Amino acid sequence: MNIGFIGTGAMGVPMVANLVKAGFSVVAYDIVPAALAAAVACGARAVGSTVEAAKAGDLVVTMLPSSSHVVKAYLGDEGVLEGVAPGRLCVDMSTIEPATSKLVAETARRRNVRFLDAPVSGGVPGAVAGTLAIMVGGDAADLEEARPALAAMGKNIIHVGPVGSGEVAKLCNNLIAGVAMVAVSEAFRIAEAFGLDPRVLTEVVSKSSGNTWAMEHNHPVPGLVAKAASSNDYAPGFTTDLMAKDLGLAVNAAREQRVPVVVAPAAQQVLRLASSHGLGRKDFSAVYTFLKPSGGEAPV
Ligand code: NAD
User: Fold this and answer.
1) Which atom from ligand 1 is nearest to the alpha carbon of 237?
2) Cys bridge to 64: 94, 164, 167, 254, which one at CB 3.0-4.6 A?
3) Chain centroid to CA 21: how far?
4) SS3 label, residue 229
């Protein structure tokens, strides 16, 4: 089976590699030549445009940064919907606005093209290991058609509901993950300012009610968890800009449904500030480096 894969960045490349390993033939496109070259190094064949990748795919998979990229890639000139054959299935695995998934799905449906939203969790390590959690919105029969390809990239494939609901599940998950990382970073900064050894605090929290995935797997303090981005100069991983985007998706969704949210917007602004201080392309755990004590003798 040919898969047209569009968007071969930090996540897309290892996902392509796993599709190739599972025996799929992958035709890839990315607007950044270096990103496309990385997919070719994993066994994909490169094409020169979105429309060519869409034409070549029995199944089309997209893994793009945000809603505007997905709109452009599907609905723009020379986009996916101009290339994909009627009757085919497209799977967008980007994290975007649920409303954008619905818009693309509806436009595709009018052209007799089927669409699933299937965002993922697990980060680059999960993409490399082929163990991503994949949350799917759309028709159950379409999910069954996509399942062999999804199973090459992920382990837990969960059908959430109709189109857009995979994205809702994803933004709820990332609201928790983003807020937790800011909370862990604040806690460790306070403890360090009081002279506590972060290794000892990690041991305490890991046995206590504050334990969280953010600390266990992506500890913001360097040198405590070997596989954490912090131990590799905060190389992403999942960038500060992407997490700020995802918290924004959660805040927008809350506004749409008139749900009061207080903690998510605060965490988003902390990440935006970190980004404006040059940490946007670093892993989002680098927010810890931004929360330095101000020092001095100022009154508290
Ligand atoms: P990335 O920026 O590394 O990769 C996205 C790629 O899309 C880039 O190479 C970019 O050049 C390409 N692109 C943009 N517009 C394009 C277009 N019109 N046509 C073709 N290519 C285009 O981002 P990433 O980290 O791979 O994340 C991709 C998506 O997955 C995002 O929505 C992100 O929120 C989500 N996600 C990322 C992680 C993670 O840990 N990185 C984890 C879970 C979910």
Assistant:
1) 40
2) 94
3) 22
4) helix
**What is the SS3 assignment for 106-148?**
HHHHHCCCEEEECCEECHHHHHHHCCEEEEEECCHHHHHHHHH
Query: Rounded to an integer, what distance in angstroms lies between the CA atom of residue 27 and that of residue 38?
Result: 13
Rounded to a whole number of angstroms, the distance between the first and last alpha carbons of the chain is: 64
CB 12 within 8 A of CB 70: no
Tokens describing residue 264: 């998510």
Query: Helix, strand or coil for residue 137?
Result: strand
Q: 78, 74, 140, 77: which is closest to 108 by C-alpha?
A: 74
Residue 103 tokens, joined: 């818009």
Whether 29 lines ligand 1, by a CB cut-off of 6 Å, is yes
Which long-range contacts does 66-69 make (Cβ < 8 Å, 24+ apart)? 66/94, 66/95, 66/96, 66/245, 67/96, 67/97, 67/100, 69/7, 69/94
Residue 126: φ, ψ to 5°: -65, -35
Tokens, residue 92: 């967008």
pLDDT in tens, 112-158: 999 999 999 998 889 999 999 999 999 999 999 999 999 999 999 99
Q: State the average pLDDT over residues 160-174.
A: 98
Length of the chain: 300
What count of Cα atoms within 13 Å lies in the side-chain half-sphere of residue 47? 19
Of 66, 242, 243, the one to substitute when testing ligand 1's pocket (max ligand atoms within 8 A of C-beta) is: 242
Say if ligand 1 is within 6 A of residue 64 CB: yes
Q: Are 225 and 217 in contact (CB under 8 A)?
A: yes
Per the annotation, the verdict on 170 as an active-site residue is yes
Catalytic residue among 102, 170, 245, 282: 170
64-78 in b/e burial notation, b at 16+ Cβ within 10 A? bbbbebbbebbbeee
pLDDT band at 13 (very low <50, low <70, confident <90, very high): very high
